[in-house]
């Protein structure tokens, strides 16, 4: 039976780092140039059109996009960077938890117990 993992060192530290990463989001921000509906628009007639930020993301397996107001662009950029940081921290959590468990349960780790059992079976079948 597995022992209870008492995480006192690693988990609070990773949790504190995760909390500092809010707001966080996953997706991509793109600058696009779209035509408007105004007749005789000089920007549209010149082909320059109008700059707009689009946030693209996946929702229930479908690709979606939303317009981002200019004032929100720095916040969205920071949230995207935080999203990458959160993902990085989640990848670090598995190894950190296992390292912590092994430091507290040195005798119970590794494949030694099942190996001994199979070796014992081989020996008993030979005799
Ligand atoms: Zn226009």
Notes on the protein architecture:
This protein has 127 residues and is of the alpha+beta class. It has one domain. It has 4 helices and 3 strands, in the order αβαββαα. The chain has helices at residues 10-19, 42-45, 73-104, 112-126, and strands spanning 28-34, 50-59, 62-68. The protein has a 3-stranded antiparallel beta sheet, covered by helices on one side. Strand 2 (50-59) and strand 3 (62-68) form a beta hairpin. Helix 1 (10-19) packs antiparallel against helix 3. The protein is elongated and about 80 Å long. The two termini are 31 Å apart. The model has no long low-confidence stretch (mean pLDDT 84). It binds zinc ion. Zinc ion binds at residues 35-36, 38, 41, 43-44, 50. Zinc ion (ZN) binds next to helix 2.
Briefly summarize what is shown:
The chain has one domain (about 10-125).
Task: Present the secondary structure layout.
Layout: H1 10-19, E1 28-34, H2 42-45, E2 50-59, E3 62-68, H3 73-104, H4 112-126
Antiparallel strand pairs: 1-2, 2-3
């Amino acid at each position: 039976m597995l022992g209870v993992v008492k995480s006192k060192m690693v988990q609070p530290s990773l949790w504190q780092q995760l909390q500092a990463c809010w707001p966080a989001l996953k997706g991509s921000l793109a600058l696009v140039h779209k035509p408007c509906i105004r007749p005789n628009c000089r920007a549209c007639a010149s082909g320059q059109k109008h700059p707009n930020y689009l946030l693209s993301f996946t929702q229930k397996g479908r690709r979606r996009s939303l317009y981002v107001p200019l004032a929100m662009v720095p916040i969205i950029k920071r949230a995207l960077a935080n999203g990458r940081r959160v993902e990085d921290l989640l990848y670090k959590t598995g190894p950190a938890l296992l390292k912590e468990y092994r430091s507290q349960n040195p005798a119970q780790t590794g494949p030694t117990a099942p190996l001994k059992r199979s070796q014992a079976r081989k020996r008993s079948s030979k005799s």
